[in-house]
């Protein structure tokens, strides 16, 4: 069974973490904000307070043993980039990163992110496709 680490527990990260956990997956949830960690403590396998730009902290947490990492640390561009770089250097096979914009997304791809997502844009496109699909009357 795949093991997931979710870094950054805003709306996006916590939704990913709790949904995976509800479906029976092992989830390590990380945030530097103690309140955010506490809010998820009962819902995931492990919830830990740590700075995701601190390589030693990520090593100590055994992040290298996880199959998938989801990074969603908000608008802090340098933290997003640094964290992604560390995860790829630790050989995490699949790293998904939430990007605030296209340029930022390009940088993330260049440093090794396996997938970059733009939740608002992606969800907008999905809703539009739903609306124009043949099932339009079902919405
Ligand atoms: P949304 O809430 O819509 O998902 P977002 O990703 O911009 O948007 P924020 O509310 O900014 O969400 O959440 C980002 C989270 O990332 C915060 O909980 C913040 O504490 C955490 N974070 C930011 N920098 C670091 C870091 N270096 N290490 C760990 N966590 C971090």
UniProtKB/TrEMBL annotation:
Example GO molecular function: monoatomic cation transmembrane transporter activity
The stretch of the full-length protein covered here is 1 to 139 of 217
According to its UniProt entry, one GO biological process term is:
potassium ion transport
Q: Where is the signal peptide?
A: none
Name recorded for this polypeptide: TrkA family potassium uptake protein
Organism encoding this protein:
Halanaerobium polyolivorans
Which positions fall inside the RCK N-terminal domain? Answer: 1-117
């Amino acid at each position: 069974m795949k093991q997931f680490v979710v870094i950054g527990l805003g709306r996006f990260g916590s939704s990913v973490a709790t949904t995976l956990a509800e479906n029976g997956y092992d989830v390590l949830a990380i945030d530097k904000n103690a309140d955010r960690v506490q809010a998820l403590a009962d819902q995931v396998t492990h919830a830990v307070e740590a700075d995701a730009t601190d390589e030693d902290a990520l090593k100590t947490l055994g992040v290298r043993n996880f199959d998938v990492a989801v990074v969603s640390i908000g608008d802090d561009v340098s933290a997003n980039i640094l964290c992604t770089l560390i995860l790829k250097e630790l050989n995490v096979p699949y790293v998904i990163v939430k990007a605030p914009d296209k340029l930022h997304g390009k940088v993330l791809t260049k440093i090794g992110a396996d997938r970059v997502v733009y939740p608002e844009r992606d969800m907008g496109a999905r809703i539009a496709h739903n609306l124009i699909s043949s099932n339009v009357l079902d919405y």
